[in-house]
Amino acid sequence: MANGKTSSLLGAACAMGALTAGSSAQRPAHLGHFGRCQGPAFQITDDILGKFGDPRKTDKPIGSNVSQCKKTYPVLAGPRVVGPPRESGTGRTLLTADAVTEHQIARVGTLVECAGGKHLAE
Q1: Do the Cβ atoms of 83 and 47 come closer than 8 Å?
Q2: d(C-alpha 95, C-alpha 111), whole Å
Q3: Terminus-to-terminus CA distance in the chain, angstroms?
Q4: Rounded Cα–Cα distance for residues 68 and 76 (Å)
Q5: Is the pLDDT of residue 69 over 50?
C-alpha cells in the first residue's frame, strides 16, 4: 500500500517539481525515483507515530489504524506479533475485528512492542 499510494504521491511531487523548474530531460525521472524511494520510509514513520506517538504533537488519536483494522508495518514487522502461544488468538482477533475497544487498541500496542514490531519499524 505504501508503494502504491505514498510512494506514488512523493514520486510525482518530486518529478513535477523538476519539470516545473525546467530541469534537464533525465532529472524529473531521477527525482521521481528518489520520491518513490522515500514513500515507504514516510509511511513507516507515520505508522509508528500513529501507534506510539503523542496525540498532542501528531494530531492523531493513538491506535486509529488499529481501530480501522489497518495492518501497518509495525504490526506486521514483529516476528511474533500475535503474542506468545497462549495469546495467539488475541492478536489475530484484534487484527480482524469489526469493532475494536480502547482496551484492545492498547493491547495491540503492547503486543506489537513486545513482538519487536516497533523496534523493527524504527
Answers
A1: no
A2: 11
A3: 19
A4: 15
A5: yes
